[in-house]
Design goal:
756 residues; alpha+beta; MutS, DNA mismatch repair protein, Chain A, domain 3; Rossmann fold; 21 helices; 25 strands; 50% helix; extended
């Protein structure tokens, strides 16, 4: 497959950068698209499983296969190598546990043997960042204690000697140095015989002799013997640990290979994140696909829905995106067959057995080939390799030669490739090839375009029609002398100019239609969202009203029960008063009790008929907290239209209405409503530019309408300016009886009013 021409190595470089282990990076660097459908499906499934995992811990895994092989041959591993083995075992076992929810990943991870954990345990008990621990064995602990004690004895002896008068005056320096592991004094060369001992060297200048005093030779010898014993014990421990690693070398090598595959799957998932899965099919369908190497913030997505096509001819202006479209398709196919998800909104791709591409510079100095000759050499190779499952991509087919012959050659080549390959996509400026594509069954045109106003490339791709080159506009945009461009236009066949103009008009019309369609879709979605929002609000209002009605009913029942109890008590009191009639104040008590009974009976009659409240419906008599009384004529969007006794109609929020407690005929309202509330009352009024008095009147009417419409708060925009309009607005709001409070907004350029 021609991966280099399509910049697939750059994709591989990104994949390598996303790996966590050296062996995973090696697998990623060697990744090639597979021509086998079963392998492609397996790779895509691995990527999907890795995407579904929350975490795949791979940090700490190293390529310890070489260390394991060395240990298996009887070699001794150093502490650093042993620590790498332990860290790799720990991380690999954790990675195996993380794949438990997968199928293919877990199948790979079963090669990681959890029984390797004791090997890591033994290493971690004996080795740390400093090397072999003192606690690695009882003998090593004893020897290192002895080493520290021996060093202290030697240091004390040397210190005593250095302080004696007979030695101190002959020393070049008072500190103790070490030569060949032996403690020595730095003695003046002229005083060598004054300090008895063994000479272990001289300074570069020859003025200093390094002497080990005879008094510490025995102590140093004993210390050296302990050092040798300690080194021997460390070597024994390392050999023992290495033997344990060597015994499991086969399992460790399998572990390294398994973690490499897991790492590759995780890197593929990371590079594919945010892209939908690819359906393997018989057609090419890439919707909203963009070039994976371009910045996604600026790359223009294109649609390549090539169902039923065997050839696509892309034409349009230079720098208009033809080559990018070609590479986008090729890279999408290569990524898919490598196990990666191409960046597209929707993707269906076949599995190609070969992707053949001829893109870019075709010159070859070594082979003495011109651009055209190199191009033809590539085409010959393509014709030899292309088969029924091949994808062929050719940039500027048969260009670089005589236009008449080049056009004829291009048509013949594409016609041959249509019969020979699964899909052929070419770019061209030849009008004859565009005409061939429009006539030939199984072939189609596609166009890139320029902005008709700015003449800048749009980088879009439109299937179903050819594009125009816009060579003159492009040359003019790039700075060519306008006189030269004008002269060139006079030399073009007028018929060609007319065709180009018609194509340009078609492109502009299609673009405008697309923008109008997008705007309509956006408006429809906004309307649907608003409808859903209103439905939710209505549901909340209805639920709140139902809760309020339930509370009112319960409160009425409690009051009714209390009134009945009070009435019974008063009746008992009346009977008691009658029995006490013979007393002097019996008449007064009787009268007072009778008055209380009559009062309780009146209250009982008021409470007893209270109906069980239910949701309001059309035809219900209602009243509101602002004095409106009448019958509900209609209900919609959280509000109701109420018809008053005089026939006037008022629209008011349902939350502000309640049943009129069963009265058959409502009395005339205390306030006559002369203007019906509107359902389209806005919650914002802009009075900027008005006089202060006009603003006052507008605010007064605005608040009245808003209150009747059931709005809880409104906003008046008055600007800052000189402050006259703002002061008038706020004064009017302060005076209005329906305004509870107000507050400044928008840096004092507006005022928010809360209504009763």
């Amino acid at each position: 497959m021609d991966t280099a021409a399509l910049e697939f190595p750059a994709i591989v470089a990104r994949l390598v950068a996303g790996t966590s282990t050296p062996q995973g990076a090696a697998l990623a660097a060697a990744l090639e698209p597979s021509p086998r459908r079963d392998e492609v499906e397996r790779r895509q499934a691995l990527t999907s499983e890795a995407l579904a995992l929350e975490d795949l811990p791979l940090a700490g895994i190293d390529d310890v296969a070489g260390d394991a092989a060395l240990a298996a041959r009887g070699g001794t591993l150093q502490p650093d190598a042993l620590r790498r083995v332990a860290s790799t075992i720990r991380a690999a076992i954790a990675a195996r546990a993380a794949t438990a929810t997968g199928v293919l990943l877990h199948e790979i991870a079963t090669a990681i043997d959890p029984n390797l954990a004791p090997v890591a345990d033994g290493i971690e008990r004996a080795i740390d960042d400093e090397g072999v621990r003192d606690t690695a064995s009882p003998e090593l602990r004893r020897l290192r204690r002895e080493l520290r004690a021996g060093q202290e004895r030697v240091a004390e002896a040397l210190g005593r000697l250095a302080r004696t008068q007979g030695i101190q005056q002959h020393l070049q320096e008072e500190f103790v140095a070490y030569r060949s592991g032996r403690p020595v004094f730095a003695v003046k060369a002229s005083d060598r015989r004054s300090v008895p001992g063994i000479v272990h060297g001289t300074s570069d200048s020859g003025r200093t002799v390094f002497v080990e005093p005879l008094e510490v030779v025995e102590l140093s010898n004993a210390h050296a013997e302990t050092v040798a014993a300690e080194r021997h014990e460390v070597d024994r421990i390392l050999r023992e640990l290495s033997a344990g690693v060597g015994a499991r070398a086969h399992d460790l090598i399998a572990l390294v290979e398994a973690t490499a595959q897991l790492d590759l799957a995780a890197a593929c998932a990371q590079l594919s994140r945010g892209n939908p899965s690819v359906e393997v099919g018989d057609v090419v369908r890439l919707l909203g696909v963009r070039h994976p190497l371009l910045d996604p913030r600026v790359a223009v997505p294109i649609d390549l829905d090539l169902d039923g096509l065997r050839a696509l001819v892309i034409s349009g202006p230079n720098t208009g995106g033809k080559t990018v479209a070609l590479k986008t398709l090729g890279l999408a196919a290569l990524m898919h067959q490598a196990g990666l998800r191409p960046p597209a909104r929707e993707a269906t791709l076949p599995v190609f057995d070969d992707v053949l591409a001829d893109i870019g510079d075709r010159q070859s100095i070594e082979m003495s080939l011109s651009t055209f000759s190199g191009h033809v050499a590539n085409l010959i190779g393509m014709l030899e390799r292309a088969g029924e499952r091949s994808l062929v991509l050719v940039d500027e087919i048969a260009s670089g030669t005589d236009p008449v012959e080049g056009s004829a050659l291009a048509q013949a080549l594409v016609a041959r490739l249509v019969r020979q390959a699964r899909l052929t996509v070419v770019t061209t400026h030849y009008p004859e090839l565009k005409e061939w594509a429009s006539r030939h069954e199984g072939a189609a045109n596609a166009a890139t375009a320029l902005d008709p106003q700015t003449h800048e490339p749009l980088y879009t791709l439109t299937l179903g029609r050819p594009g125009t080159s816009h060579a003159l506009q492009t040359a003019e945009r790039l700075g060519l002398d306008p006189a030269v461009v004008a002269d060139a236009r006079t030399r073009i066949d007028p018929e060609r100019l007319e065709i180009a103009a018609l194509l340009a008009q078609t492109q502009a019309a299609e673009r405008a239609a697309g923008e109008a369609r997008d705007a309509a879709v956006e408006a429809r979605e906004r309307a649907r969202a608003r409808e859903r929002e209103l439905q939710r609000a209505l549901a909340r209002v209805e639920a709140s009203a139902e809760r309020e009605r339930e509370r009112a009913r319960e409160e009425a029942e409690r009051e009714l029960a209390a009134a009945r109890a009070e009435l019974q008590a008063l009746r008992d009191e009346l009977r008691a008063a009658r029995r006490a009639r013979r007393e002097s104040d019996a008449d007064r008590a009787l009268g007072a009790a009778a008055d209380r009974v009559r009062s309780a009976e009146r209250r009982f009659r008021e409470l007893e008929p209270l109906p069980v409240l239910a949701p309001l419906a059309v035809g219900d008599p209602v009243e509101s907290d602002v004095g409106v009384r009448g019958t509900i004529a209609s209900i919609s969007a959280g509000g109701a239209e109420v018809v008053g006794p005089g026939g006037q109609r008022v629209r008011i929020a349902l939350s502000r209405l309640r049943p009129s407690r069963g009265r058959e005929e409502a009395p005339a309202p205390a306030v006559h409503i002369h203007a019906a509330a509107r359902a389209d009352v806005s919650d914002e009024l802009d009075v900027r530019g008005r006089r202060a008095q006009d603003a006052r009147e507008a605010v007064r009417a605005f608040v009245d309408d808003a209150a009747l419409a059931g709005l809880q708060q409104v906003r008046v925009v008055h600007g800052r300016g000189t402050g006259a309009v703002r002061d008038a607005v706020r004064d009017e709001l302060d005076r209005h009886p329906l305004v509870v409070r107000r507050e400044a907004e928008s840096n004092d350029g507006a005022t928010l009013a809360h209504l009763r």
